[in-house]
Specification:
- The complex is a heterodimer of chains A (317) and B (635).
- Chain A has 317 residues and is of the alpha/beta class.
- Chain A is 30% helix and 17% strand.
- Chain A has a single domain, classed as Rossmann fold, CATH 3.40.50.
- In chain A, the strands form 2 sheets. In chain A, strands 2-1-3-4-8-7-11-9-10 form a 9-stranded mixed sheet, with helices on both faces. Chain A has a two-stranded antiparallel sheet with strand order 5-6.
- In chain A, helix 1 packs across helix 6 and helix 3 packs across helix 4.
- Chain A starts with 34 loop residues before the first helix and ends with a helix.
- Helix content of chain B is 37%, strand content 20%.
- Chain B folds into 4 domains: 214 residues, Pyruvate-ferredoxin Oxidoreductase, domain 3, CATH 3.40.920.10; 181 residues, Rossmann fold, CATH 3.40.50; 71 residues, no CATH class; 122 residues, Rossmann fold (3-Layer(aba) Sandwich), CATH 3.40.50.920.
- Chain B is globular.
- Classes of the chains: A alpha/beta (317), B alpha/beta (635).
Chain lengths: 317, 635
């Protein structure tokens, strides 16, 4: 543990983890909330990948989606509004042995935590980030969010919001050192799972925006695209998200987008006529701060003592 | 007295005086290297065995206008035969690169009648006429104030060896001071080699040449010399500033992560750590902001690698929400606050002890945590190690208060004997016993064992929401009472291990001075001076501010008057509209009154200067008359 016992890696797993091993308290999200499906998808991923619950950490901020860790039977950290990413990076920095996930919302990530979001992309630590984006503040009961479309009627903009929204995918693609950017929807379990899995497998900071239904404050928001998949563009590529052809067939509009093509990814992200789902961008070779974080671990107490004494020598009288 | 070597046919008689202690100042425009000279002077003096204390004089801007009062940049070095614990009162000898910066120091009452001022005379023949005039007039004025002015061709002599005097006259001055104070030139040369170790050999060579030139010039031209005999000791000493001590304390505490954001005057601790971590194992994370810095540190601590974050007032303000979180979620963490002048951005480079009440009480809701304050540079080292221990044992953040005075001050102290036990994680790494809650609070002490990610069976979700012992969100609000009780009880438990503080001086008397933090040396020197004159004054110095050390009420009762001496704001009792009822007291006085229900007076200011023993003596003399005068008044 803690990287102190290197022989741990030779241990043969004695347990097989089933879905139930990741299920904690009954989720208290509203009936019909998109978060339920995302939770199931994540639990399935943990089981498929046989992640030891004790070596898995879910970090979140504040908001409806940030209750996520409480419903996982892993280690969890339900922190402060907007601050999930610095905490998650701190967890990972000297504990490369842990699988770290972040569950965050549109207010949490794209408003109060924006600075951390931008810098976490740049740090590119091996963390899977799920942005559960319902384009509204739910927990505080219906205020405009930074991703709410212009004209959204909310408690803070009763006559409709007046500013254009932040486009999280566009923003992420604009930050230096972005390495994995994908978008999916909560109502297509196959695509959702495949996207989260690809993000988990990515060696670096995987940013996944999940369009998520809020049946209370954004009842009609995604109904048109759910009823009519033609409103969505599916990204298909041999290096992209792989889903069952039967599911893919639902989508009339597809683009064979190579995820290494950043320029095209940005163009796709900026297209507001139709939401895209799939892998927009991936580069496994970007600089990773977590590798730096783990670089001088495991120095023995004797070596440490020697190093400190050498430092003290410089101040010796 | 001795005959000096021949100098142009003339023989100079040099009078050598032996001193117990002397206060030297070097003042200049910013960027002329005065601090480097002073630090070097302090370091070689400490290495020779002298007691030393240095204080940097730092203007607010990086490059303030030249020849201006506000631009005075430099350093004070107090050297003594015995241990020196504070910066002392007025300076005895000053080296000034121009006359204008002297006025910045005169405003601070830094000099006395008879202070020797060695002044660069290059301004006397400056090409700009107004400067010549300014210089001549100032010279006249300075003499009329009773200072002993000696004009020195500092720049002229330095330029014999170097083209840009801004890059070299400081080392010429170092040489001159080495002669004046009979310093060991071998040590001075070694110091120059150390200072310029990252520079090319020719830079080292020219600075060595300047050192020697300064020394030789002084030997040939000055008529006086001082000697400050050294202490004889077998003990090994180290000499460093408070930020370096915090840094070395951090690696010695076994901490392997410092998450920080640049802020004056705290940052140099992290600079030093960044170098030391390389071989000792550990890393600095320079976060995107102060909030992210503490969040990152808390993440690492939660994951079993107790971390440190080092900051100053404005940074503390930004960290507020996370400090509250760490208390609520019982995450161990070491927070160092190198206090500077406030409020708001305040006086970034100047000393203040203004964050006491913020640290103890400054978060929304009830946030019991341990707060301790280092009083010496030695304590800056050891208290980080202590802070980590306490943070982990009591599962809470620990705030260590230092200040700008300690951060840049240099003082020798016994070399710490590094113990490998300091590095060990006290966390029990065995598998978590099934059915044990994440907060298995002991009802009496509030203490509980902490599960760490990786620990089988210990899975739980930490939360800043009110929670029960399983860390489950409290849907029953009354659960909050239990959590608050348990967290508060940890402080009471910790208090069981503390002893009442020691009183400096007699255990009873007329006045008891109470202080905390970097004012220790000045307070005790002042108390000793008063006691020598027969005044019945004692002092005590608090290291633990939360919880407050035990037994204070009993100690206070043995004195007629209790006065805190602090560097933070209080209303003067004689100020307009100020009454006994509405007077806003300094922070420790306010806190002690609340805790002991004893009348506590205060003496404090926010001049941005370390306290001087002389000012405390003057205050105490006045107070003694009042205290003893009161006795004469019939009840």
């Amino acid at each position: 543990m803690f990287g102190l016992k290197s022989d741990c890696i030779l241990d043969i797993p004695e347990e097989y983890y089933t879905l139930a091993d990741y299920e904690s308290a009954i989720a208290r999200w509203c009936p019909g909330c998109g978060d339920h499906g995302i939770l199931t998808s994540v639990q399935r991923l943990c089981s498929e990948k046989q992640l030891a619950p004790e070596n898995t950490v879910f970090v979140s901020g504040i908001g409806c989606s940030s209750r996520f860790p409480h419903y996982m039977k892993t280690y969890g950290f339900h922190g402060l509004h907007g601050r999930a990413l610095p905490v998650a990076c701190g967890v990972k920095f000297r504990r490369p042995d842990l699988h770290v996930f972040v569950a965050t919302g549109d207010g949490d990530c794209c408003s109060i935590g924006t600075a951390h979001w931008i810098h976490a992309i740049r740090y590119n630590m091996n963390i899977t980030v799920l942005l559960l984006d319902n384009e509204i503040y739910g927990l505080t009961k219906g205020q405009t969010s930074p991703t709410s479309s212009k004209g959204t009627v909310s408690n803070t903009n009763p006559h409709g919001s007046i500013l254009p929204p932040i486009n999280p995918i566009q923003t992420t693609l604009g930050v230096a050192n972005a390495s994995f950017v994908a978008q999916t929807v909560d109502w297509n379990p196959a695509h959702l799972y495949a996207t989260i899995e690809a993000g988990f497998e990515h060696p670096g900071f995987s940013f996944i925006r999940i369009l998520q239904r809020c049946p209370v404050f954004q009842k009609e928001l995604f109904q048109p695209v759910i009823n009519n998949p033609d409103e969505i563009t599916l990204l298909t590529h041999k290096n992209g998200i792989q889903i069952d052809p039967a599911v893919a067939k639902m989508y009339k509009h597809t683009v064979d987008h190579d995820p290494s093509n950043l320029h095209e990814a940005r163009e796709l992200a900026e297209n507001l006529d139709r939401q895209v789902i799939g892998l927009l961008y991936q580069d496994k070779t970007k600089e990773r701060y977590d590798l730096y974080g783990a670089h001088n671990m495991g120095i023995t107490p004797e070596e440490k003592q020697k190093a400190i004494n050498l430092e003290l020598d410089k101040f010796a009288v | 007295m001795k005959d000096n070597k021949s100098n142009g046919g003339q023989k100079t008689l040099i009078k050598k005086t032996t001193l117990q202690q002397h206060i030297i100042e070097i003042v200049s425009d910013s960027g002329e290297g005065a601090q480097k000279t002073g630090q070097s002077m302090g370091l070689i003096s400490a290495k020779m065995g002298n007691g030393v204390w240095t204080v940097e004089i730092i203007p607010a801007e990086i490059q303030p206008p030249a020849r201006s009062k506000a631009g005075a940049s430099g350093i004070r070095i107090r050297i003594g035969s015995k241990k020196v614990t504070n910066m002392g009162d007025e300076a005895d000898l000053v080296v000034a690169m121009n006359e204008q910066v002297l006025y910045g120091r005169i405003d601070q009452q830094a000099f006395r009648e008879g202070t020797i001022i060695l002044l660069d005379n290059k301004w006397a023949n400056h090409e700009v006429k107004t400067i010549q005039v300014e210089y001549a007039e100032s010279l006249k004025d300075l003499k009329s104030r009773g200072y002993e002015i000696i004009e020195i061709p500092i720049e002229q002599e330095s330029m014999k060896h170097i083209a840009d005097p801004r890059k070299g006259k400081n080392m010429w001055v170092f040489g001159m001071l080495c002669f004046i104070y009979s310093r060991d030139m071998e040590k001075a040369e070694a110091q120059i080699k150390h200072v310029f170790r990252k520079k090319k050999q020719d830079v080292v060579d020219v600075n060595l040449k300047l050192l020697r030139a300064g020394f030789d010039w002084a030997e040939s031209n000055l008529h006086f010399q001082f000697d400050i005999p050294v202490m004889q000791t077998q003990e090994e000493f180290v000499v460093m500033n408070g930020n370096e001590a915090v840094s070395l304390g951090t690696i010695s505490a076994g901490i392997e992560l410092c998450a920080m954001y640049p802020i004056t005057p705290a940052t140099s601790a992290s600079h030093h750590l960044a170098e030391c971590f390389q071989n000792a194992g550990g890393l600095i994370h320079q976060a995107e902001d102060e909030i992210a810095a503490i969040g990152f540190a808390i993440g690492a601590s939660y994951a079993g690698k107790t971390a440190i974050t080092i900051t100053s007032g404005p940074g503390m303000a930004l960290k507020t929400e996370f400090i509250g979180f760490a208390v609520m979620a019982e995450v161990p963490l070491v927070i160092v606050n190198v206090q500077r002048g406030g409020p708001s951005t305040g006086l970034p480079t100047k000393v203040e002890q203004g964050d006491l009440l913020y640290s103890v009480f400054g978060q929304p809701g009830d946030t019991p945590k341990i707060v301790l304050a280092a009083a010496t540079i030695e304590e800056c080292f050891h208290f980080v190690i202590l802070a980590r221990r306490l943070a982990e044992a009591f599962r809470m953040p620990v705030i260590l208060l230092t200040d700008a005075n300690l951060a840049t001050g240099v003082q020798p102290f016994p070399r710490p004997k590094i113990d490998t036990e300091w590095f060990a994680s006290p966390i029990d790494q065995s598998p978590w016993k099934e059915g044990t809650p994440a907060f298995d609070w002991d009802e009496e002490t509030g203490l509980s064992r902490r599960p760490i990610p990786g620990q089988k069976g210990g899975m739980y979700t930490l939360t800043g929401l009110a929670h029960d012992q399983w860390s489950h969100v409290a849907y029953e609000a009354s659960i909050n009472q239990i959590g608050c009780d348990r967290r508060s009880r940890k402080l009471a438990s910790f208090l069981q291990s503390l002893k009442p503080p020691e009183v400096h001086g007699e255990p009873e008397g007329d006045i008891l001075v109470v202080g905390w933090g970097s004012t220790l040396g000045a307070i005790e020197e002042a108390v000793d001076m008063i006691r020598e004159k027969g005044g019945r004054v004692s002092s005590l110095h608090l290291r633990f501010l939360s919880p407050l050390e035990p037994g204070l009420k009993d100690i206070f009762k043995r004195f007629k008057k209790i006065i805190t001496v602090e560097i933070n704001y209080s209303d003067n009792a004689n100020d307009p509209m100020i009454t006994r009822e509405n007077r806003r007291l300094s922070q420790l006085a306010f806190y002690l009154r609340a805790q002991t229900l004893i009348e506590v007076d205060c003496f404090s200011n926010v001049h941005g200067q370390p306290l001087r023993p002389g000012a405390i003596v003057a205050m105490l003399e006045k107070e003694l008359t009042l205290v003893n005068g009161d006795e004469l008044v019939p009840a």
